[in-house]
């Protein structure tokens, strides 16, 4: 009985991973033609990925969030924000913070600041600090300075790097 359940679980995992990969292919093909107008296949791929994200185990959610940051479009940003704000997996939240940093959208600063200050996982706090560094806005200074007192050395280093980098870019303007 246990073996049958594991086999069914593995089959569903493989099936879902295949769906994710097919959706990503559709997105890459459509996005390569220009982001101003996503093809219908790409829009459907985003709907499918969002649905899968909401109903799948951690490994599928991680894969979806990991690859979507390559597509700096509104629907993707919203899904990354949702993942950072509410996913139960620190690995998925970490990946969402990374993706938001890669996107560089200043509208995500408050969410990233909240993650630096309050996320229970040092992995997420560390990655949110680096995401704020990528965005490069001085409104992040208080949270990053607070992060210098974090109990985790990786978070402290990430906040040091972020503060130094943002200050350098501001001074270079």
Helix content, binned percent: over 70%
Order of helices and strands: HHHHHHHHH
The computed structural class is: mainly alpha
User: Mind telling me the C-alpha Rg?
Assistant: 18 Å
Strand proportion: under 5%
End-to-end gap = 65 Å
Overall geometric form = globular
Instruction: Enumerate the spans where pLDDT stays under 50 for 5 or more consecutive residues.
Output: 1-8
* Major sheet description: none
DSSP helix count? 9
Count of DSSP strands = 0
Oligomer: single chain
- Mean of residue pLDDT? 89
Write a structural description.
79% of the residues lie in helices and 0% in strands. It is mostly helical. The protein is globular. Residues 1-8 have low confidence and may be disordered.
Summarize the structure.
This protein is mainly α. It is 79% helix and 0% strand.
What's the topology here?
Blueprint: H1 2-32, H2 40-55, H3 58-68, H4 74-86, H5 90-103, H6 109-118, H7 122-135, H8 141-147, H9 153-172
Helix pairs in contact: 1-2, 1-3, 2-3, 3-5, 4-5, 5-7, 6-7, 6-8, 7-9, 8-9
Keywords:
single chain, 173 residues, mainly alpha, 79% helix, 0% strand, globular, disordered N terminus
């Amino acid at each position: 009985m246990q073996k049958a359940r594991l086999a069914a679980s593995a089959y569903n995992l493989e099936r879902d991973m295949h769906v994710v990969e097919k959706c990503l292919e559709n997105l890459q093909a459509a996005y390569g033609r220009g982001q101003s107008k996503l093809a219908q296949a790409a829009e459907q791929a985003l709907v499918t990925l969002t649905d899968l994200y909401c109903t799948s185990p951690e490994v599928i959610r991680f894969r979806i969030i990991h690859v979507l940051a390559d597509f700096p479009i509104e629907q993707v940003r919203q899904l990354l924000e949702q993942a950072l704000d509410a996913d139960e997996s620190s690995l998925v939240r970490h990946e969402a913070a990374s993706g938001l940093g890669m996107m560089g959208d200043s509208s995500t600063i408050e969410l990233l600041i909240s993650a630096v200050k309050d996320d229970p996982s040092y992995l997420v706090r560390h990655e949110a600090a680096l995401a704020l560094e990528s965005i490069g806005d001085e409104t992040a200074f208080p949270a990053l300075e607070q992060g210098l007192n974090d109990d985790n050395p990786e978070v402290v280093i990430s906040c040091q790097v972020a503060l130094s980098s943002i200050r350098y870019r501001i001074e270079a303007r």
